[in-house]
Predict the 3D structure of the following.
Amino acid sequence: MNQLIIDDAVERVRAALETGRVDDAISYLNTLHPADRAETFADLETEDQHELLPRMDAESTAEILEELEDEDALAATTHLSSAQLADVLDETMVADGLISPHPKFAVSPTSGYRLLEHAYAEILQNLPADLVAQVPVWDQIYLEQFHSGYVASLDLAAWDKLLNLETAEEN
């Protein structure tokens, strides 16, 4: 996008934030193409970024973080809770086709880790059988072969139950 257009977008977002209209700033950002949204976001002051990002939905946050440079994305996430980061990671894995869409899991102190375990099981179950037992570190082979085989053999709902993952509706 033309730098003049990005500068105008930055000014619109700043003006909304200065008058306390955070939702308007987010709505405006969401009208932009993801790459332009990320460029506009990157041009904002750090304080403005930290005011916006925690209030954005997981999909918009994921799109912005994906377009930012790694260091900038890491810095931007410092004001996100672990639950928000888990939602962003989940959104990214679904959007990238690594895992299937699923109901949102209820938040708990360990739900981010358990979300990764859910993804691990789904990925294992979709791998060709000869790849499931492949382990890169020699001293972990027997444990990982057992674990991978066990997780791959379970129904995903049963694995989620073992992980104490509940959908938000169940909670």
Notes: The chain is about 65% helix and 0% strand.
